Amino acid sequence: MSVSSPQLRLLRELDQAILNYPDTPMNYVLRGEFWVKYFQPEKAILDFEKALRLAQDELDRSDWEYREQAVIDRAEQGLRKARQFLD
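RE: above sequence
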């Protein structure tokens, strides 16, 4: 599947969000989902693993667990999907 101009723009925006907010796990989840959609499982795995580390760090410091757990759940789901491409 080829990537069109709107998708390239989305990727650039995701890259910029990560540059601006490198400790925000959801940015990595979103970019990981982009990579899965466009058949780049190795890149997706790296992003999902980074999201999991960041979200777990936030969870360990937080009194509220809902947002962090939602990010962890979504990253784990994406990681499973990305790994299926490699099996």
